[in-house]
Amino acid sequence: MELQLAAVLGSLALGGAVLVLFFGKWWQPLADTDRRVKELADAVEALLRQRAEVLAHDPSPASDPVRAWLRRVQEAQDELVSIKERHDGGQLYVVRLVQYLFLPAGPVAGLAEQQLKAVRALREQGAAILEAALATPQAPPPLLCDPEELRDLPAEAGPARAYLNEALRFLGDCDAALGVWGAGGVGKTTALKLVREVCGRVARFDHVLLVAAARDCTVAKLQREVVSVLGLRDAPTEQAQAAGILSFLRDKSFLLLLDGVWELLDLERVGIPQPLGMANGKVRKVIVASRSEALCADMGCRNKIKMECFNEEDAWRLFKANVGGDAIHRHTEILTLARQVAAECKGLPLALVTVGRAMSNKRTPDEWADALDALKASQLSTTPGSDKSTHALVKFCYDNLESDTARECFLTCALWPEDHNISKDELAQSWIGLGLLPDIAGDIAEAHRFGHSVIAILEAARLLEAGDNHRYNMFPSDTHVRLHDVVRNAALRFAPGKWLVRAGAGLREPPREEALWRGAERVSLMHNSIEDAPAKAGSALAEAQPASLMLQCNRALPKRMLQAIQHFTKLTYLDLEDTGIQDAFPMEICCLVNLEYLNLSKNKILSLPVELGNLSQLKYFYLRDNYYIQITIPPGLVSRLGKLQVLEVFTASIVSVADDYVSPVIDDLESSGARVASLGIWLDNIRDVERLARLAPGVRARSLHLRKLDGARALPLLSAEHTPELGGVQESLRELVAYSSDVEEIMADAHVPGLEVIKFGFLTKLRAMAWSHAAASNLREVAMGACHSLTHLTWVQHLPCLESLNLSGCNGLTTLLGGAEDGGSAAAEVVVFPRLRLLALLGLPKLEAVRVEGECAFPELRRLQTRGCPRLKRIPLRPARGQQGTVRIECDKHWWNALQWAGEDAKACFVPVL
């Protein structure tokens, strides 16, 4: 037995030895490969540390040998990634053995060995570069600009400027990320805006991106912010969007300013190129603003700036600047009280600004004493510097607003997402729909003006601050506003009744908790990605009876959500803009008999049902930019909507709509005598325009889209000659769109006082267009496309309100500004466009000059787009003071290099995006 066991063990040992000998010659090369790849990775890591040391001594190398060495270091890093991908592609022994035996490419071990020799040589060169750098005295990291340039920064920047120099030094050193942290309201956002403004002036970076991360930030949300700032197109998936962002930024220098970061963000998933720092001769830097120092560290910020509340003197200066010197020095007792009121703000910049503005209209010592007592009482139970303390100060400012209307309107701003840029027009439209503005005798234009005046009051009180308009590249913008996150949180606490607000929170489904829905009067779930409504959520919704529901910008809203809405019988306000409604009109809406405001814009609806007439209380109905080119409106529908004040029904197509679809609408208006304060509609012929004119002033045509026009050779709507029969429309017209017509001439000399927007497209026979001051004095936006026969435009010399001018596909256009009113003795004058922000010149192959002679001034220009303008060689810009580095010009590299400039000061205005 023992002999048999010994024989078996001997056989096993012999067999193992044979196997080791047999496979050893195959295993050894694979083991060598692992070792050599590991050695290469360690060597490259050491090389990268060496590169960091070189850049620490010389962040922007001017020496050609150093730049060449840096480029080769980057290539070595890329080669390591390639080798590791090949090596890691077959971790299984069998797979790696097959690769080793049969793949035609050389073994990974050989490639790793060859690259290792190259890396060692680079390290020797790097050592020599470092030795030479150490022998040279090291200068302190340079400032990005001369501090003298900071003199004309906004006064409200205050002592935040003290932190700016520190941030500027970061932009000049080799660190990739900087953290700015501190309590809410200490000025982190202001500091980032100052950095953006200064960087815009010196144009060191190709792109400076200030984006709001906000609470509950997702990758998709951050991508949307980045895409909006860069002016890129949306992509269908996160991966595709990341690829688009990466492709755009890969070969550019950029500074990413992340504001309001609450949690760790994966910038690589967003599409931000890695690594940050210096890469391929480009500078990639990030500044992270957060309330948490630890989070800044987690985001890779080695250096951090802590922003503190202001000291007593700095706080007093900021407070006094916002109150105004006249109010404070009116009485000696007021001066003493004012210092005590400023002290109650605890050095918090946000509070100093808002409380200061609230006190600017206090003229007597008694008023100041009462305010001081109120401030002290409001903060007795709060901890200084806490959010509750700040909320108490915001509450004081809120209570000091001049009217209940302003207070109610302010609170509704919190229904939008945190740090969202809200269009002023959108805000005014919403306030009208919510019934917050006084009914101005059915005059919608006056109601919008009143809404904008309320926004101005809230801005003056510093409860609203200027937002950004990415379309114009305006930073800041006078067309958008935003709510500071601290102020927004306070507003939600002050809201009367119960509100359910989860706007921009990255939701995939509505909240499931029944307690959240029960008793909620206003519900805002806008700007999410709600695509499902499970049964449990449905039961929660069954208990809800909100008065207003905001679901806009949920682009795949589920049918079950719409089914739940039909039970909201108390609903008066419903916004479903851009919610992915397709084909059939959602009949559930027809059950909402108390509905007063309905927005279904930017959807894909084929027809309106007769049952929509059940909404007898409906006042405002918006169906703009509908996807389909055909839409059917049943006869008698408009007459059944007896309280309708606003009706806007448009298609997004510029090709065609259903023939005579508008006839039932005009027939209803004529037969019923209905009064519509704002009508927006498509028309096919001038006869329909005349019918509308006869219905004025009961029916005010605020927006008209004209197509075909039955072979009309002119556009009589803008002609003074046709005012007797069309004056009723001219009086109220705000927006005019004309396309696909045989119009050959446009003589705009009629008095059209409210005309702000004109868009002309596919007017292929249009040869001449002239504008008088009467028709153009209030123009805000002009867009013309595919007007192939047009050779020049005759404008009044000064368009005081024009903000956007977009010309595309006008193949015959030779001069942008020309004609009788721009010649002769006027040629030497400077033509000024005081508010123009966006100028787009696209596909204009014969355009030779912006102006025949003389210069133009665009003091507010922020974005210039040029494509397909090969003959345009000169931009006759007269620079305005402080305009350097403020205009983003998107153009072809060769065209930019060939431009002729009147002087370097004109060229310095532009930041090219090539």
Architecture overview:
The chain has 914 residues and is an alpha/beta fold. Among the domains are: 24-135, no CATH class; 147-306, 3-Layer(aba) Sandwich (Rossmann fold); 401-496, Arc Repressor Mutant, subunit A (Orthogonal Bundle); 791-914. The chain is 39% helix and 17% strand. It contains 30 helices and 35 strands. The strands form 6 sheets. It has a 17-stranded parallel beta sheet, with helices on one face. The longest helix is centred in the first third of the chain and has 56 residues, at 2-57. The protein starts with a helix and ends with a strand. This is NB-ARC domain-containing protein. Belongs to the disease resistance NB-LRR family. Residues 173-324 form the NB-ARC domain. Residues 30-86 form a coiled coil.
Tags for this entry?
30 helices; 39% helix; 6-stranded mixed β-sheet; Rossmann fold; 914 residues; alpha/beta; Leu-rich_rpt; Arc Repressor Mutant, subunit A; leucine-rich repeat; 17-stranded parallel β-sheet
The number of helices is 30
- Head-to-tail CA distance between termini: 87 Å
CATH fold call of the domain at 147-306:
Rossmann fold
| Mean residue pLDDT | 82
Given the C-alpha coordinates, what overall shape results?
globular
Structural class: alpha/beta
Oligomerization: single chain
The assigned CATH architecture of the domain at 147-306 is 3-Layer(aba) Sandwich
Full CATH superfamily name of the domain at 147-306: P-loop containing nucleotide triphosphate hydrolases
CATH hierarchy class name of the domain at 147-306? Alpha Beta
Strand content: 15-25%
Number of strands: 35
Radius of gyration, taken over Cα atoms and rounded to an integer in Å: 33 Å
Keywords: ATP-binding, Coiled coil, Leucine-rich repeat, Nucleotide-binding, Plant defense, Repeat
Organism: Panicum virgatum (Blackwell switchgrass)
Family: Belongs to the disease resistance NB-LRR family.
GO molecular function, one term: ATP binding
